[in-house]
Amino acid sequence: MPTPEPLSAGQRTLRLTAIALIAGALALAFAASAGWLTPARLTPGRIVDALQGHDGLHPGFRRAHAKGVCVIGEFAGNGAGAALSKAALFAAGARVPVVGRFSTGGGIPDAPDGRVVFHSMALSFTLPDGSQWRTGMNHVPIFPVATPQDFLAFQLATRPAPATGKPDPARVAAYLAAHPETRAFMAWLREHPLPSSFANGTYYSVNAFRFIDAAGTARTVRWRMQPEAPFAELDKATLAQRDADFLFADLATRLRAGPLRWQLIVTLAGPGDAGNDATRPWPADRRELTLGTLTLERATLEDDGPCRDLTFDPLILPAGIAASDDPLLAARSAAYARSFTRRAGEPAPRSALARDPSFRETVR
């Protein structure tokens, strides 16, 4: 093979210039995609910054739903879902392992349970082919905002003022005056009873998704996990007198006594039902199907539990389930990833539940 002729000084300069231009273009594109060149652009970092600004920076913890506990169990499909989705967990006789997490709303990891906030259930199903379905659900069937931009604005409007430690009433009032959907959410949370336990709450997907059957037909759906445990109302008037971790202690005690079960119920959208607006409930007369049973068998501390390093990204979906055009889904996915990156690089302090001797005893 002939030896290539050496490059002249001018050719070397041109080549180095081309490499620099390509590298610069890539950096420019990366910076633009990250929002660094457009500070007003909404980015995952801005959303996570707003969460930290709202509830404070707590290194090593999730920026939202900071207080939580892991749970372990399985899901058994009853076959009814196979007509709607080709996802393997809906086949008759299917049984798949589940890792989950119960949490309360907010970004303060040692917040007392006696607050009027929503309760959440997050689940990760592992299908036989190794794919996963992850879902984060709230006990409230609607969300306070419809878009990522409004979510950011809501966090900023309700951010505590440094001088008082409470949100600025004028700022909150101005936001609510312009957002009737948020007022409706707050009214729902205020007027409806809180479940007395994680175990007797119903948990809603809130966002819409699409189920896709074997023929490729897609249907817009929402779902909920409905408990077998009978509902009981939490007395809001006595919340301040309850133990700081009473919800989590109750869950662990119940699981030590035996498994807890929920039915997965899917609701099919009807004509005119919004698939892209989580603030709008669907009519109660929509068609529903029960697709199987979730059984949770034990709880474990998140500090070293199987849910610690899971993000319950709503866009981690198996074949047969797809995202709707709800803009919150992509924003949730990106913000969860950014939150995980931050906390993974921080020291991991012990959680409030790990420091509670009585709670540690119940999860052994």
Order of helices and strands: HHEEEEHHHEEEHEEEHH
CATH architectural group of the largest domain:
Beta Barrel
* CATH-derived topology of the largest domain: Catalase HpII,  Chain A, domain 1
* Structure classification: alpha+beta
Give the biggest beta sheet: 10 strands, antiparallel
CATH level-4 homologous superfamily of the largest domain: Catalase core domain
Task: Note poorly predicted spans.
Answer: 9-39
Number of helices: 8
Percent range for β-strand residues: 15-25%
Helix content percent band: 25-40%
Number of strands: 10
Inertia-based shape: globular
Determine the mean pLDDT. 88
Radius of gyration, whole Å: 24 Å
Task: Give the topology, please.
Blueprint: H1 9-34, H2 44-55, E1 68-77, E2 95-104, E3 119-126, E4 132-138, H3 148-157, H4 169-178, H5 180-191, E5 203-204, E6 209-212, E7 218-227, H6 246-257, E8 260-268, E9 288-300, E10 321-323, H7 327-344, H8 357-362
Antiparallel strand pairs: 1-2, 1-9, 2-3, 3-4, 5-7, 6-7, 6-10, 7-8, 8-9
Helix pairs in contact: 2-3, 2-7
Describe the protein in words.
The protein has helices spanning 9-34, 44-55, 148-157, 169-178, 180-191, 246-257, 327-344, 357-362; strands at residues 68-77, 95-104, 119-126, 132-138, 203-204, 209-212, 218-227, 260-268, 288-300, 321-323. With 364 residues, it is α+β, with helices and mostly antiparallel strands. It folds into 2 domains: 7-38; 42-362, Catalase core domain (Catalase HpII,  Chain A, domain 1), CATH 2.40.180. Strands 1, 2, 3, 4, 5, 6, 7, 8, 9 and 10 form a 10-stranded antiparallel β-sheet that branches. The radius of gyration is 24 Å and the shape is globular. The protein starts with 8 loop residues before the first helix and ends with a helix. 36% of the residues are buried.
